[in-house]
Amino acid sequence: MLTDMLNNPFGRVKFFFLGHNEKLKGCEKMNGWVLAILIILAFIVVMFILILITKLTITLSLYHGNDNDHFKVKLRAWFGLLRYTIDVPMVKLDDDGPNILVEEKNIRGDENSPSNEKESKKKITPSNFINSLNDTKEMITHVMEMHKIIRNFLKKVKIDHVLWKTLFGTGDAAATGTMTGAIWALKGSIIGLISGYMRLQTQPSLEVIPSFQKAVIQTQFSCIIQFRLGNAILVGFKILRYWRGGRAQFKSKMLSRLSDEKQQSV
């Protein structure tokens, strides 16, 4: 039958168009795969650019009043579509030793109607603090120009709505007056240091209230910090780029895993 079709002029034309249609179907199928791949690549590029330009807003709130401590960190991005809250309602000394007990609550989404909420209790020991200092020393030792990298990043960080109020008293009027002046000087130095490294947007609201009648110490601090995720990611790349001196000996629980992974890979 195929021979008759080829011998017949009309059959040859029909055979030509059948083959041409098969080629067209194959091309259309290939074009579909190419288009799908291009769409996926375009989506990945758009998401990557979106992450780089995303502005992260961090709201810090700290209160200390005698035995009452409260610390809260709110993270917000994409005009509030992404929210995450770290609430530490309790910080107190451990009765069994020189440790600090911390109660932490992690909330995803809105605080009033969270999508996910997790509570945990942690114990911070003196060894944890020493290990953190050791890790900081290791980072400074192994990363060339670490101070320059961090300083360049902080230049791009905005800090706004700085509020710092302190109520202080020792029970002695003369000592309270002296310490009040020292607290003012300390606050001025810290704010000057912050403004030298970060972009301070508005004048901070500072207040020191002396209490001459009784011994008391209460302090309230809050501020809003903003930076782009792309700048933070760039810091990570620079740390990897300027790393030197081989494997670091991290001791804290989180960073010690990096040391173990590098040792296993070697």
Characterize this entry briefly.
The chain is an alpha+beta fold. Among the domains are: 51 residues; 70 residues. It contains seven helices and nine strands, in the order ααβββββααβαβββαα.
Describe, in plain words, how this protein is organized in 3D.
By secondary structure, the protein is α+β, with helices and mostly antiparallel strands. Among the domains are: 2-52; 55-124. Helix content is 47%, strand content 33%. The protein contains seven helices and nine strands. The chain has helices at 2-7, 9-53, 126-142, 146-154, 173-197, 229-241, 256-265, and strands spanning 55-65, 68-77, 82-93, 100-109, 114-124, 158-170, 199-200, 205-210, 215-228. Strands 1, 2, 3, 4, 5, 6, 7, 8 and 9 form a nine-stranded mixed β-sheet that branches. The longest helix is centred in the N-terminal third of the chain and has 45 residues, at 9-53.
